[in-house]
Design a protein that fits this description.
Layout (H helix, E strand, L loop, with lengths): L1 E3 L5 H6 L14 E2 L3 H6 L7 E2 L3 H15 L4 E4 L15 H29 L2 E6 L3 H4 L5 H21 L4 E7 L9 H4 L2 H9 L9 H12 L21 E2 L1
Parallel strand pairs: 1-4, 2-3, 4-5, 5-6
Antiparallel strand pairs: 6-7
Helix pairs in contact: 3-4, 4-6
Family: Belongs to the short-chain dehydrogenases/reductases (SDR) family.
InterPro entries: NAD(P)-bd_dom_sf, Sc_DH/Rdtase_CS, SDR_fam
Keywords: NADP, Oxidoreductase
Length: about 240
C-alpha cells in the first residue's frame, strides 16, 4: 500500500483520484494538515500529524497496523521560503523551511525503510525542485532544503538498493499551484517568467502526478538514485 505526505495538495490529491488511473493509491499521511484538509482529500485514509520524528513513526506504524504493509512512500510536503537575500533571511523561517522540506523526508524514510526491508521491496519518491539543482536568487533556505533532499534521496538509494528499495526525486520547474499564486498574480512577473519557459506556461500538477505514478510502478524498476537535469525553467519535471 502507498502512503503520501501532503496528500491534499494538488499533486498529492490527484494521486488518489480515480479519474485516470487503473490502480489508484489507497492510503496517505498528511504533514502540517488540519481536519478539514484531511476530509477534502481523495484518499480514503488520512492522518493529521505534526512534523516531528515521534509523530512520523506513530503514523507509519498506524498505517502498517491498518493496511498490513507500505510499498510506496511519496513525500510531497513543501514550504516556499520568502525571496530575500541571505543577510535578510529570518533564522526561524530558515529552520522551518529546512524542517518541512528536508527533515520530514528523513523522518518518514527512517520510519518506512525497516518495513520495506522486511518484504524486500519498496519505492520512495521525494518531491524536490529544479531550484535544488541549480539554485535561485533569494531562495537560500528553499534551495538548500531541496538540494539536500536530492542528495538524501540518492543516499537512500545507494544504502538500500540491495534491500530491494528504490528512491528517486522528482524536480519540477515552475508549477501552477497555490504555492505559486503570488507570482501568478503579478502580471509583469508572470509575463517575464513565462517568457523564459519554452512552453510559455507553468507545469500542471497532473503532469507531475503522472510522473510520480510511473516512477513508483514496476515499469521503473531499474530507476533508482538517478539524476537527470532539465534546463532551468522548463515546465516538464526532471527526474533526479
Amino acid at each position: 500500500m502507498p502512503i503520501s505526505t501532503s496528500a491534499m495538495s494538488r499533486v498529492g490529491n490527484l494521486l488518489f483520484s480515480p479519474f485516470s488511473y487503473s490502480t489508484p493509491l489507497t492510503s496517505c499521511l498528511g504533514l502540517y494538515t488540519n481536519t478539514s484538509m484531511c476530509k477534502s482529500s481523495n484518499c480514503p485514509l488520512t492522518y493529521e500529524i505534526p512534523l516531528d520524528p515521534a509523530s512520523c513513526f506513530v503514523a507509519v506504524d498506524a498505517c502498517i497496523k491498518k493496511l498490513g504493509r507500505i510499498d510506496i512512500l511519496f513525500h510531497n510536503g513543501a514550504m516556499l521560503s520568502p525571496i530575500v537575500p541571505v543577510v535578510d533571511h529570518d533564522i526561524d523561517v530558515f529552520n522551518k523551511v529546512i524542517m518541512t522540506n528536508l527533515c520530514g523526508a528523513f523522518y518518514l524514510a527512517k520510519a518506512v525503510v525497516p518495513h520495506m526491508k522486511l518484504v524486500g521491496k519498496g519505492v520512495i519518491v521525494n518531491t524536490a525542485s529544479i531550484s535544488g539543482v541549480g539554485g535561485d536568487y533569494g531562495l537560500s533556505s528553499y534551495n538548500a532544503a531541496k538540494g539536500g533532499l536530492i542528495n538524501l534521496t540518492r543516499t537512500i538509494a545507494m544504502d538500500h538498493a540491495r534491500d530491494g528499495i528504490r528512491a528517486v526525486t522528482v524536480c519540477p520547474g515552475f508549477m501552477d499551484t497555490p504555492m505559486s499564486e503570488g507570482v501568478l498574480q503579478n502580471e509583469k512577473l508572470r509575463e517575464e517568467l513565462f517568457e523564459s519557459i519554452p512552453m510559455n506556461r507553468g507545469g500542471h500538477p497532473t503532469e507531475v502526478a503522472q510522473l510520480v505514478l510511473f516512477l513508483a510502478s514496476d515499469e521503473a524498476s531499474y530507476i533508482t538514485g538517478h539524476r537527470k537535469e532539465s534546463t532551468k525553467n522548463l515546465s516538464h519535471p526532471a527526474v533526479c
